[in-house]
Amino acid sequence: PAVPTALACIYLPATCRRYLLCELVSDDPRCRLSIDDRVLGGLVRDTIARVHGTFGAAACSIGFAVRYLNAYTGIVLLRCRKEFYQLVWSALPFITYLENKGYRYPCFFNTLHVGGTIRTCQKFLIQYNRRQLLILLQNCTDEGEREAIQKAVTKSCFLDEESGEEAAEALE
């Protein structure tokens, strides 16, 4: 038998979460390549404890996770409970370095988006990457550099040759 909607809310509580889409910015390229999700999660937890004390550490420890980490682009997706996402968000500017394997790399977090689902963060990231690509193409110094970027993007995005040519024309 189906459970009435009102009773379903009692028995199956929804877990409200927030996802913080961040970019790890560092001048040292080794910084991003040396990170892993456990080290990053520990660093964020330690920073929350340092900034917000034991209450902040306890409140954010439940449900906190590093859901996605791309070492090449520096994109990080953090998950936390909806009630306490502002504690996590406000602690991120206090991260000024990343320590891993005995090395300290200066860095900072740039929060790009706060969303209710992973899907909304993915949609935002696609739009963000498109804007960044347009800026990159506008800042090209010569036509050869521009063509190399267009070729690399179309090759990585499209499988068949016709779609790649159409996309290259659309980027121009």
Write the layout of secondary structure elements.
Blueprint: H1 5-11, E1 17-25, H2 29-33, H3 37-61, E2 65-70, E3 75-81, H4 85-91, E4 97-100, E5 103-106, E6 108-115, H5 118-138, H6 143-157, H7 161-171
Antiparallel strand pairs: 1-3, 1-6, 2-3, 4-5
Helix pairs in contact: 3-4, 6-7
What would your notes on this structure say?
- The protein is α+β, with helices and mostly antiparallel strands and 172 residues long.
- The protein contains 7 helices and 6 strands, in the order αβααββαβββααα.
- It has a 4-stranded antiparallel beta sheet, with helices on both faces. It has a two-stranded antiparallel sheet with strand order 4-5.
- Helix 3 (37-61) packs across helix 4.
- It starts with a helix and ends with a helix.
- It is found in: Nucleus, Nucleolus.
- One of its GO terms (molecular function) is ribonuclease P RNA binding.
- InterPro entries: Pop5/Rpp14/Rnp2-like (IPR002759), RNase_P/MRP_POP5 (IPR016819), Rnp2-like_sf (IPR038085).
